[in-house]
Amino acid sequence: MQAIILFAHGARDPAWARPFEAMAAHLRHTSPHRIDLAFLELMQPGLEAAVETQVQAGCDQITVVPVFLGAGGHVRRDLPALIDTLRSRYPTITLRATCAVGESPEVMAALADAALRLATELP
Amino acid sequence: MQAIILFAHGARDPAWARPFEAMAAHLRHTSPHRIDLAFLELMQPGLEAAVETQVQAGCDQITVVPVFLGAGGHVRRDLPALIDTLRSRYPTITLRATCAVGESPEVMAALADAALRLATELP
Asked: Which residues of B touch A101 (CB under 8 A)?
């Protein structure tokens, strides 16, 4: 069974997570996969707990999508290290990570269009 | 003269800034406004330097768009404090900030669609 984990940074303010919760809710309607959120720090669940939950639910193909705009140390170092640890722990599970969503041209264009609309719609 | 500043977090890795540079380049083609980038930390220019550059170039209406996915302390506290300081410094300039781009429903949908595509396109 396939599953996707939306992996975000995390923050102290619970309101910070709202866009990510909206993404997860959107994908639960538009995709046949199990969708969960996980956070690098400051919020729960962490990636290890989210993978554990999906494995317990019977998922054996788990894809982690870093919901980061830029790909710096968190995406290029912290996430691969977490993935390596989890692969050792679950040798029968296929566990993979994509590039950061912010590196997709269509996301860049949507962000730019939204920025322009927000800036020009201010009263 | 109107100007927009795309305000992002910043990171140690120079490659992190690429999506933001792409956004700025995109907007320089699609909008009549002057477009500059600024960073909260770890990258240059900071917001104060970017505003100074735009003021020196003759811009008197400056809109700061936080290019953050979630709105936590950086968007809700750090940015308003910076804006207050800059308004005191430039009393004849109209200086405003929008909500974070990640709070736009169309950005959320684009992020979700990109996440699903990335997850399902992995070989």
From this structure: 111, 114-115, 118
